[in-house]
Automatic annotation (TrEMBL):
Organism taxonomic ancestry: Bacteria, Pseudomonadati, Pseudomonadota, Alphaproteobacteria, Sphingomonadales
Protein name (Swiss-Prot/TrEMBL): DUF6628 family protein
């Protein structure tokens, strides 16, 4: 993502680590796949081969639709964001507030779109988030259609 940092720098102090990564990883395995894609594409670009490989393994032959839609989602995020989106490296066992918000948006896009819209507006620093919300809804639907709904 162009507006996101390419890596997440930690100050090396335990208290700053807790402040920078305040959220535990999600319990939902499907949210783990989405988080992996967000982290890898945020750092390595939309065509990251590790994400494609993870989606082939996670979705089988039906990997194309969720992969393409999460790429669109990430591109929309980068285009719409007026604020940096803090992402952690894939090896982190905790999440940033921005990552938590993105997973919450993906989980709520279909069931609570007003809540998801407000989260996106706060995260991206923009009131015009309808395109990103539509992309999030499409990702959520693709995961659910593949039997991997993202739980919040």
């Amino acid at each position: 993502m162009t507006n996101a940092p390419h890596h997440f720098a930690l100050n090396g102090v335990a208290s700053s680590t807790a402040a920078a990564l305040p959220h535990a990883l999600p319990a939902c395995r499907n949210a783990h796949i989405a988080l992996f894609a967000i982290r890898r594409m945020g750092a390595g670009g939309l065509a990251d081969a590790h994400v494609a490989h993870a989606f082939v393994g996670g979705f089988g032959e039906g990997f194309r639709r969720p992969l393409i839609l999460i790429r669109v989602f990430m591109a929309e995020l980068a285009e719409t964001a007026t604020l940096p989106i803090a992402i952690a490296p894939c090896c982190c066992a905790r999440m940033t507030p921005a990552e938590q918000a993105l997973l919450t948006v993906l989980a709520r896009a279909e069931t609570a779109p007003d809540s998801a819209r407000l989260l996106l507006a706060d995260l991206l620093g923009s009131r015009r988030v309808d395109g990103v919300l539509a992309s999030a809804c499409a990702v959520s639907q693709a995961f659910a259609d593949a039997g991997r709904p993202i739980a919040g």
